[in-house]
Amino acid sequence: MATSASGFERLRAAVSRRIRFAPGGVTRLELFLDLVFVYAFINVTDLMSANFHPVGLVRGLLVVALLWRCWVSYAWLGNLARLDRGIMPLIVFGAAACIFVVGVTIPEAFADRPHGLPGPLVFAIAFVLVRLGPLLVASVAVWNSDGRRPFVRRAWTPLLASAPLLLASASLPLLLPAWAPAHLVQLVLFAAATGADFLGLVALGTGDWQLTSVGHWAQRHSLIVLIALGETIISIGTSRGLVGDPPITWSVIVGSALGFVVVVVLWWSYFDIARFAAEQSLQRLPNAAKALLGRDAYALLHLPMVGGLILLALGLKHALSSTEVSTADRWDTGSVLVLYGGAVLYLLGLLAFEKRAINLVGRSVVLGIVLLVAVTPVALGMPTLGSLAILAAGAGAVVVADRTVFHGRHRRLHGDISATVGRVVAVRPNELFLGAIVKTCG
C-alpha cells in the first residue's frame, strides 16, 4: 500500500504551489489550534464526571481517541505546509470554530438535553467537518499530480468508513428514543467509528506518511502534552466548583499542593530526557524508518499519555471536591481508580514511547508504575488527602530514583542528548511550564 518517497515529494510540491510552503517551526496559528483542541480534550472530563460509571468512562475515552485522531491529521498537515500562509489561515480558523463547537457539545455527545438542538448530531457533524479540512487541502493539491490518486483514495477511506458510523450513532437515540438497547448500540457504533479511523491511520503506507520536518513534528507533540499538563493544573483550580465553591481551607490547600506535585512529576518524566532523545533518534533515521517511527511513537503512543492526563484531571477534580467532611462521601472506589489509573496510563504510554522511539526501558518509569499499582489497594481505604499523598509519593519516586539509584545512567543519557537540547530549545520546557502555571493563576 505504500507509495515511493518521490510520490511524497510530489505531494509536498503540489501543496507548495497552492499554499506557499515554507519550512519553519510551530507557528502561532498552530498554537492557537492546539489550545482549542485542548479545550475540547478537557471538556471530556465534564462528560465523564456527569456519567461517572464504567460506561461513561468508556464513552469519554472514545471521544478522546477521536479528538486525538483529528488533531494528528492537522499536525501532519502543518508538517507538510505552513498553516499561516495563503488561504490556510481561513481554513484553520474555520476548523478551530468547528473544534470549538465539538468541545461545547462534548457533554451531550451521547445524550441530548431537551429544549435545544440535538447535541449528539451537532457533535458528529462538527467533528466530520473538522476531519474534512486536511483531506480537502491534500486532495485539491494532489488531484492532478501523476500517480497520486491512489493516495487520495487511501486518505479518504477512513473518514468514508467512520463518518456514516458516527452519524448513525448520533442519530439512533433520535430515531429510536424508546428502544431500550439504543444507548448500547450507539456506543458500539461510536467505537466502530473510532476503530475505523485509527485503522486507516495505521494502513497508510510510509510513503504517504513521510515527515517534512522532524523538529516540527516532535515540537508539535511536546507542546500538546505541555498544554494538556497545563489544563490538568487548571482542573485543580476549578475543582471546588463541583461542590458549590466553598471557602478555602487547609485541606484544600494541601490537596491542591499534592495534586500539583503529581503534575510536576509527570511533566518532568517526559521533558527531562524522552522528549529530546526521541527527536534525536528520529533525526538519524532514513526516510522510510523515520516515517514509521514518527507515526508509531508520536501519532499513536502519545494517545495514552493524553488519555491518562484526561483521567488524572477528572480524578483530581473529584479528589479536591471531596476534601471536606461534608463532601467526603464523594470520594469512593471509582474516584480512586480513575485518579491512579490516569497516572498509570500516562506512565505506560511514556514507557511505550521511550521503548519505541529510543529503545529505552526507563527504569524509573517502570518503578513508578509498579509502585502506583502496588499502593492502589492501600489508597482505596484512605481518605482523600491520604490517597493524594500516596499518589504524590509514588509518582515522586520516578524523580527520586533518577537522582539517586539510577543517577549514573541518567547522567549518561543527559550527556547523549545535550547537543539536541542545545540546538532545539529556544524557550526551555520549565519556562513553558511556568508560563502554564501563570496562565492558571490568571
Q: Which structural class is indicated by helix and strand composition?
A: mainly alpha
Radius of gyration, in Å, reads 22 Å
Our estimate of the beta-strand percent is under 5%
Mean pLDDT: 81
- What shape does the CA trace take? globular
Q: Which percent bin holds the helix content?
A: over 70%
* Whole-number total of structural domains: 2
The DSSP helix count reads 17
Give the number of DSSP strands. Answer: 0
Distance between the termini: 50 Å
How many strands, which pairing sense, and closed or not: the largest β-sheet? Answer: none
Transmembrane segments: 21-42, 57-77, 89-110, 122-143, 155-176, 182-202, 223-242, 248-271, 292-314, 334-353, 360-380, 386-406
Protein name: Low temperature requirement protein A
Organism: Micromonospora fulviviridis
Keywords: Membrane, Transmembrane, Transmembrane helix
